[in-house]
Structure formats: C-alpha cells, structure tokens
Specification:
Blueprint lengths: L3 E5 L5 E5 L4 E2 L6 H13 L8 E7 L5 H12 L3 E8 L3 H8 L1 H5 L3 H13 L1 E3 L3 E7 L2 H4 L9 E6 L13 H8 L2 E9 L4 H9 L3 E5 L12 E5 L13 E2 L3 H7 L16 H14 L5 H7 L10
This protein binds S-adenosylmethionine.
Length: 301
C-alpha cells in the first residue's frame, strides 16, 4: 500500500504522494499553508486558552494538522486529550526524518511524534495522546466511548480516491463522537460529503476561499454538531454556504457514498454510487457547472 514519493510544495514545505492512492497528501500550493488555512484557522483554538480540549485526527499522515495544533496549544498552555487514526506508519516515519518538517514546529512536537511512532502514545502534564494504526473504519470502534471530541480533523484522500472514509456509515460513526458544539473539519467541499453531514443533523459551513487569487470556491467544510446560535463564537474562516454551493448539493454530485458493513472495497463503493447516480432524477452536475461558469480546476472536492 505504501509506496510514497517526496513532494516539495510551493511554500517550501515537504509532503508526499501515494502511488497506491494516486494522490498527493497536500495541495501543491503548500502543505504547511494548507494545514493552517484549512484546519488550524477554522479550529479557533484561542477558545481553549488555558483550558482542556479533546481532538481526533483521522488520517494522520505526516501529522501536519496535529503538529500545527500542538504548536498552538503549547503557546497557549492548553491541556489536550488526543486520538488519531492512520492506516500507514510510513508517513510519520518520513516526517520524523525530514529536518524541514521538524523545523516548522516547537521541538516538543518531535518528542511527541517520536513517542507516537515508538509507543503509539505520549503523555505529560499537558498532553495525553494515542494513535491507533489500521483501517479507520475499524479502529474508530476502539476509541473509548466516553471520549467526545471538540474537534475532529478528517483528512483522507479525496472521496473519488478513498471513498471508504467518506461514506454515510463511517461519517455517522465519526459524527457521533463529536461533543455538542464540536467541529468536524475537512478540506473537502464535495457535495456528497456535505449532504451526508447535513443529513446526519450537523450544521454545515464553507471554509472561505483565500483572497490570493485562488481559483477554488471553497477551502473545505466545517460541520458543527448540535449547533446552537447562542453558544457559537463567529469564526472568520468559515461562513454559510453560498447559493452556488447549496445548488451543488441538489445535483447528482450530492449522492452519498455508501458502505453498509464498513468493509467494502473502494471499487465497490464507487460502483454502487455510479449506479445510483445513473438511476437518479437529480440535476446533472454538468448543468450546475455550466450555470455557475465552473471549470474543472475550480472544482476540487
Ligand atoms: C491526505 S493524507 C493525510 C495527510 C495528513 N493529514 C498530513 O497532515 O500529512 C491521507 C492519509 O489517509 C491514510 N489512509 C488512507 N486510507 C485510510 C483508512 N482506511 N484508514 C486510516 N487511514 C487511511 C493514508 O495512509 C494517508 O496517510
């Protein structure tokens, strides 16, 4: 599964490409930038200054999302109870070897990552961390049920390349692990994923596109469990879906990925969805793209 190729991204940070999944771990415009924009900023970590929080990182990879999280929490003296799920140990092995990756963070991050690699866990007076290696669809079941998360990062390969971690059945398990007002954060703005999260009862938001002339109309999705307007602290990184995004959800692209017993192969999940799309009377996504002048480039989910 794990032939990995090193990739230097445009902001100077390193990432990987998976030969098996035929996809890069990060956007070529910058792995570090992507983590900060799509995961750290929407997390609104100042809320937890001097307090404790629970975080679940699904598809840990090299650990950019967690490294950036730890880096901020160290500065603001938060207490963290953290779990992660990842199928492959090699990306962490690579991150531990890559000097440039290590230089981006407080040295404590390397100590934690080393311990995760060697012992699958780390504990000190501030942080309690555990990583479970294996298929997230199975390993999610061994996270003790009492743990509910304030933040869940979902950073799998794209739904077309790795639908296993974007199905109704898996996302249902994931969202059950959110605290009330907890955020699930993902880079994906796929209509199928957004519909699934909304149908599971979450309130969904779009992560705003960057102002640096980016052609993408969204940087991802934040889904909030048991959303309560009165408890919500407005966040500058995300906002309500635009009309264009709402209409996207009404097209065939909004048909969800399904994996009834949480053990289907990628090909079976994709095939079932294609069959459902063929039989569906929903608007073809091409029509939506034409209406909104959408190029394929602007349409990365
Ligand atoms: C896009 S990369 C993650 C990038 C990562 N968050 C980072 O900061 O480097 C996707 C990751 O999902 C992992 N993965 C793929 N299928 C998985 C599965 N079924 N369960 C758990 N992890 C999976 C891959 O090994 C890979 O590390």
């Amino acid at each position: 599964m794990s032939e990995l190729i090193e990739v230097l991204t445009k902001d100077g940070s390193y990432s990987l490409r998976s030969v098996f999944f035929q996809e890069n771990f990060h956007s070529l415009s910058g792995a570090l930038e992507e983590t900060k924009r799509k995961f750290t900023a929407p997390s609104d970590l100042q809320r937890f200054q001097g307090k404790s929080l629970n975080v679940l990182d699904i598809c840990f990879g090299l650990g950019y999302n967690t490294a950036s999280l730890l880096n901020e929490l160290i500065k603001q003296k938060s207490l963290l109870n953290w779990y992660a799920l990842e199928i492959d140990k090699k990306p962490l092995e690579y991150a531990l070897r890559n000097k440039s990756f290590q230089k981006s963070w407080n040295p404590q991050v390397k100590k934690i990552f080393k311990s995760l690699y060697k012992n699958d866990c780390f504990e000190d007076q501030f942080f309690k961390c555990r990583i479970f290696w294996g298929d997230a669809r199975e390993k999610i079941n061994i996270i003790p049920a009492a743990n509910k998360f304030d933040l869940i990062y979902l950073d799998g390969f794209s739904p077309q390349k790795c639908p296993q971690v974007w199905t109704i059945e898996f996302l249902s398990k994931v969202t059950q692990k959110l605290n009330p007002q907890g955020y699930l954060i993902t880079y994906s703005s796929s209509a199928a994923v957004r519909n699934t999260l909304r149908n599971l009862g979450l309130k969904i938001f779009t992560i705003k596109p960057s102002d640096n002339g980016s052609t993408f109309w969204s940087q991802g999705t934040v889904a909030i469990a048991k959303f309560d307007k009165n408890k919500f602290i407005p966040n500058l990184s995300f906002e309500k879906l635009s009309l264009m995004e709402e209409e996207h959800l009404l097209t065939k692209a909004g048909i969800p990925y399904r994996d009834q017993n949480l053990n289907s192969s990628k090909d079976d999940i994709i095939k079932r969805r294609l069959e459902e799309q063929l039989l569906s009377n929903l608007i073809p996504t091409k029509k939506w793209r034409e209406k909104w002048g959408m190029t394929k480039l602007a349409f990365k989910s």
